[in-house]
Amino acid sequence: MQKFWKVLLVLIALCLSVGRSSAASTVDLLTVHFLDVGQADAAILQCGDVSVMIDGGNSADSSLIYAYLRQTLGLEHIDVMIATHPHEDHVGGLSGAFEACSVGSVYSSVTSYDSKAFDSFRRYTARQNIPITVPSPGDRMGLSDLTLEFLSPVRTYENTNDNSLVVRILHGQNAFLFAGDAQWDAEHDIIDAGYDLRADVLKVGHHGSDTSSSYVFLREVMPSYAVISVGAGNAYGHPTETVFSRLRDAGATLYRTDLQGTVTCISDGETLSFTTQRRCDASALWLAADTLTSVQPGDMPAAAPQSAPYIGNLNTGKFHYANCASVDDMKDSNRVPFDSRESAISQGYVPCKRCNP
Ligand SMILES: [Zn+2]
Ligand SMILES: [Zn+2]
């Protein structure tokens, strides 16, 4: 009789282990790139042949975005583009994504917003004939082995940050939460609405500002890993000590783009692994902006981004052939890539008189 129970236990254990390994092996690997775009947000998710982009950095990052998509990832199509909210540090650099790739569908917290960066974003969607969808909280969509859930805004706020689309992405047994720049009011309303917020990886809200990542919110999310997308020496003092102490209490392992550059996470549906572009002392990672002066981020790898055939100057509104002498003199932060002459003109740029593009 004892033998019977032993055999039964072994059988149950076998079934469980087969169940677990098949859960991991039946989903395509997911790679999430949290791009180092300074004081801004940009993330690209690739799962099988499906790709999702959440925010695209500042306008000055559009060349970087273009090169990362075209050269580093070799991507030609983005299935779903999500602009969490219309601030420039989230939508500005999406122009580089529109130049590099065709785009399937676009989600945004608004369809209009009075800014140059959002106007440019709108012109791109109009040109590629893509309607801008404003999702409702609770909307879900399946995309290959990913499930996307929109959780916020639950209501309309005066503060543009609070109106951020908050997106939870499920991949096998792993969950990712992208909080945009949502602040306390929005965080509390998501909890009150009763959504499941649990996530293994949290893209920390609002660049590590202490107006986000409240205790109650983190208690619901319970992140094992927290990624802060933030610029070194930013004027806002992000990230702050208070946010660190809350993240520490939550027991999260920390990653941050200002010290580690682009952070990449791979999920097999069960386990997660992280790599970073630069190495950084573990002790320095938990230093808030105001105590960080003595820490120098590691060397930036020599970047040789693939240039688009045409380069616009954000400052002058002119565009040039990539090999025009004026492009050499242009500050990196003023360069915007264009894949065609028509594209530059449709964005309101005028041809340079020297190179006559
Ligand atoms: Zn922001
Ligand atoms: Zn914002």
Layout: helices, strands, pairs:
Elements: H1 2-25, E1 30-34, E2 42-47, E3 50-56, H2 62-72, E4 77-83, H3 88-91, H4 94-100, E5 102-108, H5 116-127, E6 132-133, E7 140-143, E8 146-152, E9 166-171, E10 174-178, H6 184-192, E11 201-203, H7 215-221, E12 225-228, H8 241-250, E13 253-256, H9 257-260, E14 263-267, E15 272-276, H10 282-285, E16 310-313, E17 318-321, H11 325-329, E18 335-338, H12 341-346, E19 350-351
Parallel strand pairs: 3-4, 4-5, 5-6, 10-11, 11-12, 12-13, 17-19
Antiparallel strand pairs: 1-2, 1-14, 2-3, 7-8, 8-9, 9-10, 14-15, 16-17, 16-18
This protein binds zinc ion (ZN) (2 copies).
One zinc ion binds next to loops.
Brief synopsis:
The chain contains 12 helices and 19 strands. The protein is an alpha/beta fold and 357 residues long.
**Please, what is the CATH homologous superfamily of the largest domain?**
Ribonuclease Z/Hydroxyacylglutathione hydrolase-like
End-to-end C-alpha gap: 86 Å
Largest sheet: 8 strands, mixed
Mean pLDDT: 91
Coarse shape: globular
**What top-tier CATH class of the largest domain fits best?**
Alpha Beta
Class by SSE composition: alpha/beta
How many alpha or pi helices?
12
Strand order across the largest sheet: 6-5-4-3-2-1-14-15
Identify the bound ligands: zinc ion
Instruction: Classify the beta-strand content into a percent band.
Output: 25-35%
